[in-house]
Task: inverse folding
């Protein structure tokens, strides 16, 4: 595995999502509440998202508008 590739099953914090994709934390929470953003995996009080779920969300045509 090279440095630029990441495994499909790794987990992201909300700050990682904001840094890698054009979306803000408040928009993530709004979309989550509306049932449009992937559900997080909760570990204690923290939330993490599966990289594959987030990538699928941002893939054109992969979700209903």
Result:
């Amino acid at each position: 595995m090279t440095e630029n590739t990441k495994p499909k099953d790794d987990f992201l914090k909300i700050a990682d999502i904001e840094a890698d994709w054009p979306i803000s934390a408040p928009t993530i929470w709004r979309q989550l509440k509306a049932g449009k953003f992937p559900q997080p995996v909760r570990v204690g009080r923290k939330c993490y998202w599966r990289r594959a779920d987030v990538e699928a969300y941002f893939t054109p045509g992969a979700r209903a508008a």
Notes: The radius of gyration is 12 Å. The chain has a mean pLDDT of 87.
